[in-house]
Amino acid sequence: PTGIRAPPRDANRYRGRVSTQQNGRVALVTGTSRGIGAAIAADLLAAGYRVAGTSRTGTAPEGVLGIAADITEPDQVDAAYRRVEDEIGPVEVLVANAGITRDGLLAMMKDEAWDDVIGTNLSGAFRTVRRAVRPMTRARFGRIVLIGSVSAYVGTPGQVNYAASKAGLIGMARSVAGELGSRGITCNVVAPGFVRTDMTDELSDEVRADYLKRIPLRRAAEVGDVAAAVRFLCSDEAGYITGVVLPVDGGIGMGR
Ligand code: NDP
């Protein structure tokens, strides 16, 4: 009587159907040598995608086509795409995940720390997305997910460069969404909060304890929490969702 349909009883059968639909789509993930990017690549592979992964070292999880490419170098980005196109086909799903931090208080922040972070996190994502869109436009299908951060909208003292780079990704995603929606291409941001990776292992115990106190779910995210959200936005089923920021932050940003 409510008109709301119950979820399918046999959840496994439902999952099976979804993953079959993704079968064979080509996904490219940047920053797959460790952390969140490695988890996203492995997760998409398990869901039936053919996956390529880039990083400066070129390492990627087993079964993923690993390619060495520095996203600050336009030629290397182009060469990586050509290799993916030659070996597994044109990229239909792009996850721009590679990113760095160079933390420090504003008054002491060197130009180099600003330039490195903007050059990798924002300009690197720009180059990666720019190279993706022509083949996606031709295919009339594309899924682009940019890995942002809650820092973009809550701000993080000591991370002026990083927060600015991640805020830039939101403007980029929404502009891409507007430009290319008519071609069947979606572009969204997944914004993790505090995730246990090498990047956050660098934080002091004090900073880590302070973060945990402020997270309603009282734990750091595991990389799989982020990968699951990314997988959803990459799926065919998410085809009517574009220009959104999906926080995966244990509630610390309360939906912002
Ligand atoms: P890691 O430092 O563990 O991994 C970063 C990845 O990016 C590595 O694979 C690294 O590979 C790659 N990378 C860095 N610079 C370049 C470059 N110039 N060209 C190509 N690849 C590069 O970070 P996380 O896994 O923690 O973070 C992944 C993403 O998630 C980042 O964008 C980060 O900002 C974001 N994020 C992380 C959070 C966290 O709590 N950990 C919270 C919110 C967002 P290599 O060194 O081999 O090049």
Automatic annotation (TrEMBL):
It comes from the Bacteria. Pfam families: adh_short_C2. This is NAD(P)H-binding protein, PF13460 family. The keyword Secreted does not apply. Residues 25-198 form the Ketoreductase domain. Transmembrane segments: none annotated. GO terms for biological process: monocarboxylic acid metabolic process. Keywords: Oxidoreductase. Belongs to the short-chain dehydrogenases/reductases (SDR) family. InterPro entries: KR_dom (IPR057326), NAD(P)-bd_dom_sf (IPR036291), Sc_DH/Rdtase_CS (IPR020904), SDR (IPR050259), SDR_fam (IPR002347). SMART domains: PKS_KR. GO terms for molecular function: oxidoreductase activity. The keyword Oxidoreductase applies.
